[in-house]
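ok so heres the complex, two chains, lmk if somethin looks off
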Amino acid sequence: MELTWQNSFPGVWETFIDPPRHTLTEFSGVPPATSLRYASPLPRPERISCNKVGHHIVFRIPLLPNEYLFGGGLKFQRVSIDSEVYHLRMDHSSGVDNGCSHVPTPFVATTAGFGFFCDTIDDVSLYMATAQRYKDKDRIIERDRTTDDNWRCNNPPYFMEIAVNAPGVKAVIFQGESLRDCICRFNLYCGGGFLPPKWGLGVWHRTNIKMDARQVQELAADYKRHQIALDVIGLEPGWQSKAYPCSYDWSKERFPDPADLIGELKKQNIRVNLWENPYVSEHSSIYQELKRLSGSHLVWGGIVPDYALPETRKILKKHHEKNHLDYGVSGYKLDESDGYDAWLWPDHAEFPSGLSGKAYRNVCGVLFQRFTTEMFKARNQRTYGLTRSSNCCAVSFPCILYNDRYDFHEYVTALCSCCFTGTLWCPELHDAKNAEDFLRRMQLIAFSPMVLINAWATELRPWMFPEVETAVRQVLELRQQLLPYLYTAFARYHQKGLPPIRSVFMDYGYYLQTDNSAGKLDATKNPYQVVNEEDINDQLIFGDSLMVCPIAPGTKERTVLFPPGNWYDFYSGQLISQGKDRQTFPVDINTPTPLFVPENKTIPLLGKDKQWTLRSFGPDPEPVDLYEDDGESDLYLRGQFQWFRLYPDGRREQIQKEDAQ
Amino acid sequence: MELTWQNSFPGVWETFIDPPRHTLTEFSGVPPATSLRYASPLPRPERISCNKVGHHIVFRIPLLPNEYLFGGGLKFQRVSIDSEVYHLRMDHSSGVDNGCSHVPTPFVATTAGFGFFCDTIDDVSLYMATAQRYKDKDRIIERDRTTDDNWRCNNPPYFMEIAVNAPGVKAVIFQGESLRDCICRFNLYCGGGFLPPKWGLGVWHRTNIKMDARQVQELAADYKRHQIALDVIGLEPGWQSKAYPCSYDWSKERFPDPADLIGELKKQNIRVNLWENPYVSEHSSIYQELKRLSGSHLVWGGIVPDYALPETRKILKKHHEKNHLDYGVSGYKLDESDGYDAWLWPDHAEFPSGLSGKAYRNVCGVLFQRFTTEMFKARNQRTYGLTRSSNCCAVSFPCILYNDRYDFHEYVTALCSCCFTGTLWCPELHDAKNAEDFLRRMQLIAFSPMVLINAWATELRPWMFPEVETAVRQVLELRQQLLPYLYTAFARYHQKGLPPIRSVFMDYGYYLQTDNSAGKLDATKNPYQVVNEEDINDQLIFGDSLMVCPIAPGTKERTVLFPPGNWYDFYSGQLISQGKDRQTFPVDINTPTPLFVPENKTIPLLGKDKQWTLRSFGPDPEPVDLYEDDGESDLYLRGQFQWFRLYPDGRREQIQKEDAQ
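and the predicted structre for the whole thing:
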């Protein structure tokens, strides 16, 4: 099939294969960011072919030597995705990377700066350097497994194939100068990253579901007594008269005067965020209105309103504005929209918008983010919240993804891999087995998009483990000092599309030495001699340049694979690595999270006294650029912000947006 | 949609929803067994409704109180399937029960004696007592999770919904007097179970892939030296000139004179079985012929011939007959036909028969069994082999399912659950961590449809752990003594559809006390308070009545949940349980596999001296019926067999087939 690619923006080409289908981006209703227009033009990659095969549209893309693949939705085991197959599906994450996840973004990017996006809500399968075709047989070498020790089960990475199970589709290709550049273009295409309110980057505490207003006040007082700045209290299901399914109405018993509570907390600079899920109780004040706008099936006995209908969103907005926003509520958390097959509506459920159950599942979380964001935008007010499901088209909505798994390694991998999905992810702190477990998890969330203690089912508090209290305070203080640096990283996300927290692969490409020898045969553990190419799923770039290497609970040492260039220890200022080496450091409970800085970078810290401390590394340190605005309104969208440059010697100068690094 | 059910056989109703689609049963080409005509007629269950919804045909079946569900393909974690959702797909088994497995049978059966079979190769999703509809809202009770401790995430088991992603489908319902009766009808409908040759029930040893003819002879001599009767040697990939992909031609270096080798082994009563996979090397003598009959994609560089074309099967038959069967080969093992996404052809691959890659994947293993079975049938010779993928329509083909996982509990669960899928499954012995591990695995395979040591990547031998040699010999001797009993169980599988090895639930229903209280909330491990209803995935019925309770390696005790009735210990003859109780026994390395016998049953053992020992249990023991025929030809299909009855006092009398129990 001959494809007609339309060069919509520099480095971006679109094609439409008829008949027209629902696109993902239509559900967010967000156009590409205007800054995409100013990207450098680049030649269109010429290597894509396309065929209609049965019920599928199949794109086939030859790979260059040493071209490595990323993306394909959120991952919990690996960041790089070569030699894998993913059948994308919106689902809770089971811990297995098979394409089912709560962020099943149909987008793949490569270290050659190439990106491919199927802008569709239909089923997409990704064959990542696995498919071999008969017509390429002359390139493919057969090996005899009995006699050739170089036999391997993984196919050589010659091609990727992407199959969409639909008669029509919209596809978009991105070309950048690097993987990072390609991702930036992709994020701008999806609307550009969101900018959270400043308060959103502080400490969050979500309450036990049974907590009442008095206990919430006590919680705030406890934080004050322990001198830990608390910025947001998240109320879990029990704020409502009914939950699972939900009423969205305040519980008169537990929260008799919500306006008063929220006002009191606001005086202490604490915002309130409300939990909800999309299943509506017959006891809700809007049940009758929503009934005829809901799907064929129930979840936990509740109706499932169809957010794809403007009328549904209007009813919910009106109710939420009157009952929550007017009282001062600052945002929401949407739970269970990713589904868990056994209690969600089935794929064949019918929704009044005409979407199938499966399609609606794919966009429910996006539509929730859309209508909640719109409510706050109408008030010239920023919001920051959480969602259990999303997709790339929601990149400009200020919601963070989370889930209910609790494995430390999975958490860190998701933090690394989300940057390729058009979303940001955060681990939560629910509970801790012991003081060390608590500290390590605390140190992890301190380098996340949201510092979130979620004690919905526990009584967890930051001061519960006195033996690590000092270390906990230290990392929270460091987070506090890094806030302008982090806030600037979010401004970059908004203006340039660069995720504020991301995999080291995004900045440095796939810099590992790959070992092409066969995997080690083991009759019971690796019968196919599967070669798992080395991956880095536990090193993050935080903001402009800081490399964060979280320490897992129970660990006695930490291995770091340094990217190219000279690297310095953040704490001691010493040169640690001259790049591309592997170093292992002993760790104990007193070891803070290892942080490394590339040569000549400057990290700005803002003290409680509002004085800057600039930490510079290497012989010839560069200045650092910082972003500033009012921190809570939408006036920045109308140009009310500024960039300034801090020099290592303390000088400060205002700069133009275009000059900011 | 109004369904028209046609009463094809007693207790069996078929319906056809247009347009016509490929059925599963058309690929096996096997008609229902004639004995199905003699089943008792039963009324049609009236409770099914059906709708076309978007791309789906949806069947909805209300459940009766205490009606429990089984089937939905092979399982590795649980046997009962209430509250689960399965999207059936042919795939290797990852250990997670999500519908992907190498036996994705689209069939569900219940303890009310009801069975539902979607005879289709299209996608089927099973919502097992999970879906709730708005129109049933009056039956469904909402609970507030914050205040009601009886809130549970699992939906009450009111309905099952089965969705087929196709415009047309053939569906079949079965009605039996019990779960067991329903399964028997289903197996007969699929052609009736296979009867293996007697030699197939002895000991099998598969060789290391690099082994040559001389080493194979030595292996046979080693078995003889150690006085362990070896019945089948399976040659793994290295018998071929090329493998992975395969030539199907003998390696001239390793096997210069296969006819001589096979003849020599035959003299020692040892049969030879050949390994292959469906991927063809360009070095194969039939590569040129198969090239144009193959799919669009390669696997390990090999072409994938389309077994759905009669011409392909003809070429393979001709080659195999001339190069293998004429030399005396007794059967085959087909590997890798279940696929592992990362190296299989993709779902969108094109096959010359017109089947999609996904559809072909579903039937490839069935078609292999079909053509290999046909080759032997044409010689009036029985075969017995292995296949890595299958489906219910292959119930009459003498192939056992296996895979490459190695977890003991998964093995036992699969042995239990396969009886609901129209297939038989066997664990393999690949390797052992220590003597106890070896013994427990040996004791497990001794109660499997095939006693299979697969040393393809090791040098494992039954005598490698002298400290457990006596125990190993004991269980192999017991297997030997039980052969007539087991062979009779296979005859029952053939004549009545009753699986020779099966879950206790099949014979006794779901006899557990269910606990309907909510699951225990745990913030990190069970945030949804998931209630896992009790399951029995480690107790088998072996043959007519023996309950086998395998002991897992490393276990210090074994808990048994006794079905109703009085139960006796097989070894001591003592009354152990009066039914429906839970007993825990201490075990050590000297404890043989616990075996229990229901009251008044008689277990016949045949000694090396051809003398019967009848072990009777309880005050009023019944006689036992046994089946006999020539053990290796197909003459039994023309009536050349007999049934006889052994009385506890030693009397023996010939009986009619119709009278046999």
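quick notes: The domain at 6-189 of chain B is CATH 2.60.40.1760 (Immunoglobulin-like). thats all i got rn
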